[in-house]
Design goal:
By secondary structure, the protein is an alpha/beta fold. The protein has three domains: about 15-140, no CATH class; about 145-250, NAD(P)-binding Rossmann-like Domain (Rossmann fold, 3-Layer(aba) Sandwich), CATH 3.40.50.720; about 275-465, no CATH class. The chain contains 15 helices and eleven strands. Helix 12 (about 390-400) links the parallel strand 10 (about 385) and strand 11. The chain is flat and about 85 Å long.
């Protein structure tokens, strides 16, 4: 299964963080001024000054909890832009709550307020995009670069070198690998890439002379004594030192650093939807799910009538499936078969299945039978995007046959998913088909992002593969 390495992560703040705070403050104030101008308000009032100052203060406080002002060097721009929105969105109810408690809500134009709420984060995102593009250009020209050394000719070290070499916009110049082993004991390094240039002693001495800005230690976990000795000696230099432990031998599922009290820990299997990301995901489901439900309501009414008129039985079909954390939930669908199986054995639909009703074939191929699950999305037991829920009987069968199968339940099941838009839906008559579905489900959890969700929704509507094996 594909692994998300995440080798280069945010590392610090410094002057850049101060400039970012200043830029965000300007964007918030400018957004309010533009909104007031758009509303054609004649005079600037004391209330306007208080509102902007409160917004700036609230935003900067929330930003400290979301980690917005860390250094984003080496992190894709969509992640930073998502963090901007994740920081701004909580500020909105805070401001509205203050206005309500002080009975000042009538003093502000609704149009101007909504305009402000949209303009300011767009401005902050635009500033970051321009800054990123400018820095990328400078770094590709060899400016604003850091001299980097990699300690350890290991698989994880080669992955790090490849990532840096193919990403000149990171502004990192690899001096080479440093390893105490003799060349005959080292794996062969690709030509045209960083090569072995010295030993541990060499990297220490060059760091002391100021020739190296950053040292990445990419030694295996079993090399703890050598790592400790190297860290002790590098402490006598001003080089920044980073440890790149090979946690990826564990096939991480959204692995990340956190702490338990003052004890640092790293997650091996974790959900991406904690904290701000969880709020964003829920907000996405409520807003887009409600809109989809309103648009789909006429279709659902027509389909309900047709089902009732063309076959005997209920309009809806309920089936027990596994939801978040493996809890059993009841999933609603339009009935498309003459049977309603939900026992210890559930037979999957096959091509030209005689159990499928005339209207059932059409609504299954077009996924209209899944539309009632929008109620689950808005209600909170499902999400718009996520691994498709399987019948309990199928879960119990495949969890014994596919390693990591239950990890797909670290997130809410979805109305659509990454596996479905890649053609891995419908009948899983071979173990390989189910393995490919699970592989895509876990890849979705590792790669999750708001823009990734929107892309999957787009492919669900317009993609070619989504209707494969739909019968």
């Amino acid at each position: 299964m594909a692994r998300k390495t995440g080798l280069i992560r945010p590392t610090g703040g410094g002057n850049t963080a101060g400039l970012a705070r200043l830029a965000d403050t300007v964007c918030i104030i400018a957004g309010y001024v533009a909104a007031v101008w758009f509303y054609d308000q004649a005079d600037w009032r004391t209330d306007d000054t208080v509102a902007t100052l409160l917004a700036v203060l609230a935003y900067l406080l929330v930003a400290e909890t979301t980690g917005l002002y860390q250094t984003w060097r080496g992190v894709p721009i969509p992640k930073e832009l998502m963090r901007v929105w994740g920081t701004w969105v909580p500020v909105i109810p805070m401001l509205l709550g203050v206005a309500f408690l002080l009975k000042l809500s009538e003093e502000f134009s609704r149009v101007a307020t909504i305009t402000w709420f949209v303009l300011s984060p767009l401005a902050m995102c635009s500033v970051r995009i321009v800054a990123r593009l400018t820095l990328r250009r400078l770094r590709e020209q060899g400016r604003n670069t850091r001299q980097v050394a990699i300690v350890g000719v290991t698989e994880i070290g080669e992955m790090l070198a490849r990532r840096i070499s193919t990403s000149p916009w990171l502004g990192m110049n690899i001096l080479g690998f440093f390893d105490d082993r003799t060349p005959d004991r080292l794996p062969e390094l690709p030509t045209g890439r960083a090569q072995l240039v010295g030993t541990f002693e060499d990297v220490v001495e060059r760091s002391k002379r100021g020739e190296i800005d950053a040292v990445y230690i990419a030694l295996p976990l079993r090399a703890e004594p050598r790592v400790q000795d190297l860290l002790r000696r590098l402490a006598d230099s001003t080089a920044s030192v980073y440890l790149v432990p090979d946690f990826f031998v564990f096939d991480l599922l959204h692995g990340r650093w956190s702490s338990l009290g003052d004890l640092p820990v790293i997650s091996i299997f974790e959900t991406p939807f904690y904290g701000v990301d969880g709020v964003l995901k829920r907000l996405e489901d409520v807003v887009l799910g409600t809109m989809a439900l309103l648009v789909a309501s006429p279709v659902m009414i027509v389909v309900s009538v047709i089902i009732k008129l063309t076959s005997k039985g209920p309009i809806f079909f309920k089936q027990r499936r596994y939801g978040l954390n493996g809890e059993v939930i009841e999933v609603l669908k339009f009935r498309s078969m003459r049977v309603a199986e939900d026992g210890p054995v559930v037979k999957q639909a096959t091509k030209d299945d005689p159990r499928i009703t005339p209207i059932g074939k059409f609504i299954r191929r077009t996924s209209i039978d899944e539309l009632p699950q929008l109620f689950h999305v808005v209600g909170g037991s499902m999400s718009l995007v996520g691994p498709r829920p399987h019948a309990v009987a199928h879960n119990e069968e495949y969890r014994k046959r596919i390693q990591g199968y239950m990890l797909r339940h670290k997130v809410k099941p979805g109305l659509t998913g990454w596996a479905q838009v890649n053609g891995w839906r419908g009948e899983t008559d071979t173990l390989e088909k189910m393995e490919k579905r699970i592989e895509h489900d876990l890849e979705y959890i590792r790669r999750w992002g708001l823009f990734f969700d929107l892309w999957i929704i787009f492919l669900t509507v317009f993609g070619r593969k989504v209707r494969q094996n739909a019968y």
